[in-house]
Specification:
The chain is an alpha/beta fold. It has helices spanning 30-39, 49-60, 88-95, 122-143, 150-167, 192-204, 229-237, 314-320, 335-341, and strands spanning 21-23, 67-75, 96-109, 115-120, 169-173, 186-187.
Length: 342
C-alpha cells in the first residue's frame, strides 16, 4: 500500500495553511479540465500540467473555499429540558438545530492514492464540542448509574472526543472535486455525505461505560515438594499398593479349626463371641502385586495359643466300653426288651 502522505496542516489543532498541497500526475483527466473551466469566470489557459496545478492550487487556497460535507440535526438541550408537544413539528422547531459540517481541502493527490483530504473548520469543531459537553454528556450521565469515579470518566470521555474531532480528516476519491464551484466552495456528491455523517455520529455517540470489575488474584497453595516437612509426614502414612496393611496378631483368625484361642471357652463356638467389627478381611490384592504370603502379616511376636489337648488312645477307650455303654441311657443289655416290643 502506498504511504499515506498528509501535510502538516492536516494534524490536530494545526491552523489552516495558506496554500493547499496539490500533486498532479503526468496526464490530466478530461473531467478536471472541464471543472476548472466551469468555475473560472476569467478565461485561463489550461494546456499543460503546471497550468492545471497552478489554477487548482489558487482556487482551493482561497479563504472562501469552504466545503459543506454534511448536515446533522441535533437536540439543543438535554432530554430533561426538551419541550414536549403533541405536534411533532412544533416540538422539533425549538428543540433541535442543524449543524453544518464544513471543511476545507488540505491535500490533493492524483499520483499515489488518487484522493482528496478534508479537515473540519474551527467553527464546526467548536460547535460539535459544545454539543458533546452540554447535551450528550449530560444525557449519558443521567442514563447510567452512579459509581465513585463517574465524573472523572465523563471528563475523560469528553477530552477524548475533543482530541478525536480535531484529528478527524475525511479522505475520499479525487473525483469528489467534480462538486467544485466558484471561489473554491463545493459540496460532496454521490452519497459521500452519508460517510461523513456516520463517522461524526460515531465519535459523538461513544457511550459512558463504568470501569470493568477488578479481577482478584486467587492465591493458590504451592505444590508440596518431596523435600518439604509436610510432604515427608504424608509420605510416611502412604503404603505401597503391593504391601498389605499391617494388622494386630490377635485379630487374625486361626487357619485351623482345631486351634482355639485361650480367651474363648471350649464349649462356646468361636464365631459366637466375635463381633462384626472384630472380623477384618484382608483387602483384595491387585493383579500386579507379589504372590500372597501370610508371613508378611506377622511382624510382631508369635501368636499365643493353648496347647492341643491329648486325645485318648484306643486301649483307654476299650476299658470303659461294655454292654452298659450306650447312647441316650439305652444300653445293649435291654436290647431283647426293645426287640420284642417292636
Amino acid at each position: 500500500m502506498p504511504p499515506q502522505l498528509l501535510p502538516a496542516s492536516a494534524a490536530a489543532f494545526a491552523p489552516r495553511a495558506s496554500s493547499v498541497n496539490v500533486v498532479l500526475g503526468s496526464k490530466i483527466e478530461p473531467w478536471l479540465t472541464q471543472t476548472l473551466k466551469r468555475i473560472n469566470r476569467v478565461k485561463r489557459p489550461l494546456n499543460s500540467v503546471p497550468q492545471h496545478q497552478r489554477c487548482l492550487t489558487e482556487t482551493l487556497s482561497s479563504t472562501n473555499a469552504i466545503w459543506t460535507l454534511a448536515s446533522l440535526m441535533l437536540p439543543k438541550y438535554p432530554d430533561s429540558e426538551l419541550r414536549t408537544d403533541s405536534n411533532t413539528i412544533v416540538e422539533a422547531i425549538p428543540s433541535y438545530e442543524f449543524i453544518f459540517l464544513e471543511a476545507y481541502i488540505v491535500h490533493v493527490d492524483m499520483v499515489l492514492r488518487n484522493e482528496v483530504a478534508f479537515k473540519l473548520t474551527p467553527d464546526t469543531i467548536e460547535a460539535l464540542i459544545e454539543h458533546h459537553k452540554d447535551v450528550f454528556l449530560i444525557d449519558a450521565k443521567a442514563a447510567s448509574y452512579d459509581w465513585p469515579e463517574k465524573e472523572q470518566h465523563a471528563k475523560k470521555l469528553h477530552d477524548g472526543f475533543v482530541q478525536a474531532i480535531n484529528k478527524y480528516v475525511f479522505r475520499t476519491h479525487v473525483s469528489a472535486l467534480e462538486g467544485l464551484e466558484e471561489e473554491g466552495v463545493g459540496e460532496l456528491l454521490c452519497g459521500r455525505s452519508e460517510e461523513v455523517k456516520n463517522s461524526i455520529m460515531g465519535l459523538l455517540n461513544k457511550p459512558l461505560l463504568p470501569p470493568p470489575p477488578k479481577i482478584v488474584d486467587v492465591i493458590r497453595q504451592p505444590p508440596l515438594l518431596p523435600s518439604s516437612p509436610i510432604g515427608a509426614i504424608w509420605s510416611q502414612t502412604i503404603h505401597s499398593p503391593g504391601v498389605p496393611t499391617p494388622v494386630d496378631s490377635w485379630r487374625v483368625l486361626p487357619s485351623s479349626p482345631a486351634v482355639t484361642s485361650t480367651s474363648v471357652d471350649s464349649n462356646t463356638p468361636i464365631w459366637s463371641s466375635m463381633t462384626m467389627h472384630e472380623i477384618e478381611l484382608p483387602s483384595p490384592i491387585p493383579s500386579y502385586s507379589q504372590p500372597y504370603s501370610s508371613a508378611g502379616m506377622f511382624y510382631s511376636s508369635p501368636m499365643v495359643t493353648s496347647p492341643i489337648p491329648a486325645l485318648p488312645l484306643p486301649s483307654m477307650l476299650a476299658a470303659h466300653c461294655g454292654i452298659n455303654m450306650g447312647y441316650g441311657g439305652f444300653g445293649w443289655d435291654r436290647y431283647q426288651e426293645y426287640a420284642t416290643t417292636m
